[in-house]
Amino acid sequence: MQDRETDAPQAITLVAADGYPIHGFVWRHRAREASGTGESAGNTDARPVVIVNAATSVRCRYYFRFAAFLFSHGYDAIVYDYRGIGESRPRSLRGFHASWLDWGQLDFEAVLQYTARAFPGQPVDVVAHSIGGVLVGLAPSNASIRRVVTIGAQYAHWRDYAPGRKLAMLWRWHLLMPLFALLVGYVPAKRLGWMENTPKGVALSWSRSKRRFEDTFRRKPFALDDSQRDRLVDRFAAVRAPLLAIGATDDEFGTIPAIERLLRYFTGSTLTHLRIAPAQIGESAIGHFAFFHSRFAENLWPIALAWLECGALREGLPGSVVSHYPPARPR
Known about the structure:
Rossmann fold; globular; alpha/beta; two-stranded antiparallel sheet; 9 helices; 331 residues
């Protein structure tokens, strides 16, 4: 635990069910008396802890400023790196096996289980960027999550990419990326100026993404049988947390069709899809990544904070709701 109330995080190491070490950081408030704290998130027992799920091949350190923002508003916060990325990367990615399924079923699941042990009795919320929103639906313990906010969350089916950018993105992410993965044994993305170096299996998960998420896993090296794919879908339905999906109108990945394609899997949740145009906050661009830049701490971060506080949008905040779904009826 941190010795004093600062926004400096503590390094943590978790062990996934298959024995792989997952590294991350935690911002944790000291234990206090239940009264007189003055914290917006309540006393120690009621204080939520927020897990931040990163985008594909983005280091968890990218989210430090956002986690510190949550901490400053009375929340405990956790960021972590998926296997093969950042703090959780092995010495060499050649021959290293990891896919989106591993990131969700093993890595995110390990963080959920750690949170249950280390923060007993505290509500668990998730803020998920891009593929991080998909991982919410993959973890076996996802029913324990209280509230979810996703940012540009989708699973990169190429037909959903923004018009005018589709061919260029298809060339980079669905042709060049898997080619590098097959030839080199991983994607040397840092050398290419794209992102963090990426495990081969993750690159193939991305490049082979189908209209239906479960169909992505029909082929080797991560082929699942029919019953296993059905269980994937059922696991998404186990999420009961109200979910706010935030998308920027200039996000070439997180278009309306892309975000809606993912939202359809969360049949057990109340879903709200909010679209924000850069002009609505006096900016020229937001895109897929900039939401977590500290320059948006005053106009974008409060949207996520409000949802974490009460599971609803706050009046006066920017954006337009393009869709809202009540929970699906039991099948």
